[in-house]
Write a structure and sequence with these properties.
mainly beta; Thrombin, subunit H; two-stranded antiparallel ribbon; 9 strands; 8% helix
Amino acid sequence: MPFPSTTVIHPDWAAHHAGVAEGGMNATCSITHGGTGGDWDPELGATPGTPTVTYTGRCSVDYAATQARDADAADQTITSRSVLVGLPRSAAAQANGARVKITAVDGNGPHALVGRVLTVGSVAADSLTFEQLLECTDDQANQPEV
């Protein structure tokens, strides 16, 4: 570097470019995590609580350009795909295990994504962040009816 007080990247570079990432978010989603108020019913067993909504808004959805993985789970074949979901940089931090439901996609994406439920496997954070990235799994054998 020519001078000790200069940097190659401007200090506000990520914030300045976050708008470009958000401009490419052509879907909306709702993210939930955990549950509160679960109970036990002697006849039905455990009853799930109500999950907490941690985010609702714009997102991008990018399926990995790889073949789906087939696996056996309790004698049931499941097919899963790896999906990268991008949220605005300003969105609240998300947790592993959260569920991402795609609620809408504009005309640039397939309507078939609407209603898909993805599970967050890991949350990525870079030192220069344009968007919050969630590595998710799409269990294609176990999706809710749309």
